[in-house]
Amino acid sequence: MAKPNYAFEKRQRELEKKRKKEEKAQRKATGQAQPAGDAQGADAGADTDPASAAPASEPGR
Asked: I want to staple 34 with a disulfide (CB 3.0 to 4.6 A). Which of 30, 38, 42, 52 is the partner?
């Protein structure tokens, strides 16, 4: 039986965290670049996006 490669799994988790952090920073940067009136309109559109709502509905997290 093959041994688990814990170093590979750890690296994959680190890469996923880094990717999510970069996406969040990008969203934050683009949100600050918009005028205050447009930012509220963008927030309303984000609530209807099913992709952004899916992770929040996962039980146990």
From this structure: 38
Contacting residues for 31 by C-beta, under 8 A, at least 6 apart: 39, 42
CA angle (50, 12, 47) in 5-degree steps:
15
Q: Which helix (H) or strand (E) holds 9?
A: helix 6-33
**C-beta of residue 31 within 8 angstroms of C-beta of residue 42:** yes
Q: Are 39 and 31 in contact (CB under 8 A)?
A: yes
0.85 exceeded by pTM: no
The pLDDT score that the predictor gives to residue 35 is 58
Q: What is the pLDDT of residues 14-36, one digit of tens each?
A: 999 999 999 999 999 998 876 55
Residues 34 and 45: beta-carbon distance below 8 Å:
no
pLDDT at residue 51 tops 70: no
